[in-house]
Amino acid sequence: MSTLHSRRAAKVMLTPSVLLLLAWMVIPLGMTLYFSTLRYNLLMPGATPFVGFENYYWFFKDPAFGVSVLNTLILVGGVLITTVVGGVLLALLLEQPIFGKGVARILVISPFFVMPTVSALVWKNMFFNPVNGLFAYVAKLFGFPPFDFLAHAPLFSVIVIVAWQWLPFAALIFITSLQSLDSDQIEASEIDGASKFQRFIYIVVPHLTRAMTVVVLIQTIFLLGIFAELLVTTGGGPGVASTNLTFLVYVRSLLQFDVGAGAAGGIVAVILANIVAFFLIRIIGKNLEA
Amino acid sequence: MARQVTNRYRVLVTLAAWCVALTLSFPIIWTLLTSFKTEIEAVASPPKFFSFDWTIENYFIVQERSDYFHHFWNSVVIAIGSTLLALVIAIPAAWSMAFVPGRRTKDILMWMLSTKMMPAVGVLIPIYLLCKDFGLLDSRIALVTILMLMNLPIVIWMLFTYLKEIPGEILEAARMDGANLKNEILYVLVPMAVPGIASTLLLNVILSWNESFWTLNLTGANAAPLTAFIVSYSSPEGLFYAKLSAASIMAIAPILILGWFSQKQLVRGLTFGAVK
């Protein structure tokens, strides 16, 4: 169907997008790579000598680095487990014949549209606050001393906030996926005498596997970069107790002005994200062929 | 699937679902209620649910104290500006890949997607320094550009999946009838693509509205959108829960309402068509 004429037009129309994205990827990333090999601190103007891998060496030796990588993994892992398990249960519940389903669904997905800074502030002040927070009130009601969540369980608290934001996303995808479940298969299994639990394990879960993979991978991309929630609630603390890799790079580069170390950390973050992206791209690519 | 459902079962699952739904949305509901209280009532123990003197005073205080509308307008300009710009660049690209696919089209699509995987923090320093050198720190132009580039892959992908569903024969027929490329796009393609374009627009406005890495790192008092505006409420000054709540509601209300209309597109846009 495509004539030579339209082929040329197509190329012209594709060019701006390709060039822009290429520039967006190559230029800043190239600069980060370059900065990561310099001794470059904004507080010390003057020469920025080439130091090779020195920044990486110090970044890896920094005790905060190990902690931040571990925290990144705990944050991502904690939120993933909560949202995938919770999301599947939520999707199954919302598929039942309930009254007022539309409104209930809107209520469930609403947290996803709350901007990260707002949800972090609301949770921090109105729920986690050890004096005026609702959790402190509930604790007192049952005769427990109030617990300072953000000071004593900072990672757990952040996981709660972030999981609250992403649970609707996971649920929404599982709901969509459940709707394409083959009802003949379910009926057949009923006739064959499968119990509800067996049906769930052998039919529903395998059907959802693909949706789960997609949820895990997409959320991981976003969760590796958790930033606003930390900035507003714990500030990465106490100490570095809730600093993830993204926040560590932010602290090194924009608070301590150490461009070299920050850049080295940025490159480490890019490599980490690319490992995840590699798998995600393959799965989506496979789907494109189908 | 015609299955017998007893009334008792329906009531039971309805109760369960509503309990869960109200629990999950409780932080939002609680914030909404608190925004109508006085500061004293906002921290009352035991907490007051409905029996308080309703007031809308807090909303006025927030506007007065931190100029809400200034930041609201920044959010509007940044979210809608970056989305429209992305659409203008993406529509031709998506069109050409959907209707004149070449051997490398799939590779190009995949590569575009992979640019989305780059963590923002990996390019924080160069972008920050570039903005500084060009005097674009704390400017809306910088954010419009950056968010446009960030969302461009999603926009192209979404448009591509929508356009692909339009049968090529219709375009062929238009061409047979003597339509040139311009007319073909303007009178045949665009009317059919409007729903797809609208959904893409909606999802991207939502994503840009809530973006909180670049908006926090690259803005100060001037260009700060609502994501950054709300941070000024993070340091407590005496009793401030009611004001914080009012500011929060003002920041999320516009996008919350848009979001309710975008449930379906959300799945499609964020999974790149991998879950249907």
TrEMBL record, chain A:
Name this polypeptide is given: Sugar ABC transporter permease
Localization of this protein: Cell membrane
Transmembrane segments annotated in the record for this chain: 12-35, 69-94, 106-123, 155-179, 200-228, 259-281
Membrane topology, from the record: Multi-pass membrane protein
SUPFAM superfamilies noted in UniProt: MetI-like (SSF161098)
CDD domains: TM_PBP2
Domain ABC transmembrane type-1: 69-280
Record keywords: Cell membrane, Membrane, Transmembrane, Transmembrane helix, Transport
The keyword Transport belongs to this UniProt entry's keyword annotation: yes
Protein family: Belongs to the binding-protein-dependent transport system permease family.
PROSITE patterns reported for this sequence: ABC_TM1
Xref: PANTHER family: BLR7065 PROTEIN (PTHR43005), INTEGRAL MEMBRANE SUGAR TRANSPORT PROTEIN (PTHR43005:SF2)
Source taxon at top rank: Bacteria
Species: Marinomonas ostreistagni
InterPro entries noted in UniProt: MetI-like, MetI-like_sf
Keyword Protein biosynthesis: no
Main subcellular location: membrane
UniProtKB/TrEMBL annotation, chain B:
Membrane disposition: Multi-pass membrane protein
InterPro entries tied to this protein: BP-dep_ABC_trans_perm, MetI-like, MetI-like_sf
Keyword annotations from UniProtKB, A to Z: Cell membrane, Membrane, Transmembrane, Transmembrane helix, Transport
ABC transmembrane type-1 domain ranges (all copies): 72-262
Regions that span the bilayer: 12-33, 72-96, 108-129, 141-163, 184-207, 240-261
Pfam family, one: BPD_transp_1
PROSITE patterns found in the cross-reference section: ABC_TM1 (PS50928)
Cell location: Cell membrane
Domain of life: Bacteria
UniProt keyword Glycosyltransferase present: no
Similarity comment text for this entry: Belongs to the binding-protein-dependent transport system permease family. MalFG subfamily.
Name of the protein: Carbohydrate ABC transporter permease
UniProt source species: Marinomonas ostreistagni
